[in-house]
Amino acid sequence: MTTHESIEFDVLFVGAGPANLAGAIRLMQLAEEKGQELEVAIIDKGAQIGSHAISGAVMNPVAIAELFPDYLQQGFPVEQTVRGDGFFFLTGNRHFKMPFVPRQMHNTGFPIVSLSQVCRWLGEKAEALGINIFPGFDGKEILLADDGRTVTGVRTGDKGLDKAGKPKPNFEPGIDLLAKVTVLGEGARGSLMKSLAQRLPIRSGRLPELFETGIKEVIQLPDDHFFTHSPFNDIHTLGFPLDLNTPGGGFIYEMAENRITLGFLVALGYENPALDLYDTFMRFKGHPLVQSIIQGGKVVEQGARAVSTGGWYSMPRLAVDGALFTGNAAAMHSTPAIKGIHLAMKSGMLAAETILDALAAGQSDRQALDRYSQRLADSWAGEELREGRNFAQALAKRGPIKWIHLAAQYVTQGKGLIDRLSAVDDATTLKRLAGNPMAVEKTELPKDDPAMVDKLTGVYLSGTLHREDQPSHIQIHDQRVCVEKCYPVYGCPCTRFCPGDVYEMETNKDGSGITGIKLNFTNCLHCKTCDIKDPFHNVTWTCPEGGEGPNYKRA
User: Fold this and answer.
1) What is the pLDDT of residues 38-47, one digit of tens each?
2) Per the omega criterion (within 30 degrees of 0), is the bond before 111 cis?
3) How buried is residue 513: exposed, middle or buried, by Cβ count under 10 Å (0-12/13-18/19+)?
4) Which of 110, 226, 503, 527 could be bridged to 494 by S-S, CB 3.0 to 4.6 A?
5) Confidence band (pLDDT; 50, 70, 90) for 187?
6) 170 in the same domain as 189
């Protein structure tokens, strides 16, 4: 039996995204003001802080200005400043500038940032305050007290296991990181949050979470490029290559040094099992408007992630005994604005205020930590979340009623025709595949165009690395479900919704069907789309060995 060393802290933050970094910094700022000494730690599964951070990257600066009023003077990493918003509707080969930009998408004056660089900058600020930061350590298991409901910390994953799960000579057992308060900020569809929801009623009475998956690139452009002469450097698109019943859209932002960040989001409540997320992204890039921007460019980085977009009514209970939940792990995202960094940071800062008060009173139970929920509700973040409270649910509707709901919500600051508009689990929305599952068409990429790369090249450009001689962190629970149920009905959509080519159909010799699904887990981009969209809940995503996965630098 493996023994696990334990280390105790006052507060443990799991995940070094903007929510937890801002939270840990604010906690230490407040403790310093009040003369309190705290032992605070942050762990992150990435090899370094920021290596798993990828974002659309137009940032409302309201939260960073609260955390560091002189953030620009302190060297906060800004790529560009938005000088104008371009909002376009795309058809197959044309584009139309929309007559107005919704108020939530007014970005003029906002910084365009690289989230990986922002997280690294915040990590440096955190270390300067005496916070213990441990990259390369994944939270593998939630630790509960004997009462079965009080969170006492997390256990990190073992390192040095072979494919069969047996220790190798360099084996290092995981560590039990214990804390009076644990803060889970592991991003959308976090494995610890998912595990905790199966043990405690944190989602009781809440709407299902809704998600979007985005594929994003950084493209190096020639000196004299589109944005050099454009009145706007912040573009959003609707329409092509999606139909009007499938929510999603594209974005293109100017960055420093003649680079742009470009991406496409698709809501995972889509119905067509033949929809291929990467193929959709490439079709978007092939549109004449996008081609006019990226012509002569070269993709230098690519990645993917899921975003929890359901918002206010799909947020879990924000506190349990011994733990709080921050950022997109708790579905905090402004879907109308297509932004979440500022909300994540504010949630972490409000959690910090709550934690300090609770520890000063010698308490860490749910009653003490639940004040976080009220703080959030009373803040500008709560106001923004409430304005978008029915937005993703309206987008998921079909036909004219969708646009009626959205118009009503725009006028009524989010209430709309029905307040607490219904939603269904993204995994339940697929229709039966029409035609031969083997004959799903893919877009043919132009040859020798460095601005248009295939899926495996994209994986390479993400810097993704996983040790092959380890247990797969992705589990297919029953291959018979893949062969006997999923393939005949849906044609194994995992082979199309995964942006990293993790899932591969193994066919019969006569090509009449499949024998199973091969897992190329070393390609995994940690977007967790498979865990969300699989129609049979037959796939579970967990953290691989700490320090593995993508290595984003510019995204």
Assistant:
1) 999 999 999 9
2) no
3) middle
4) 503
5) very high
6) yes
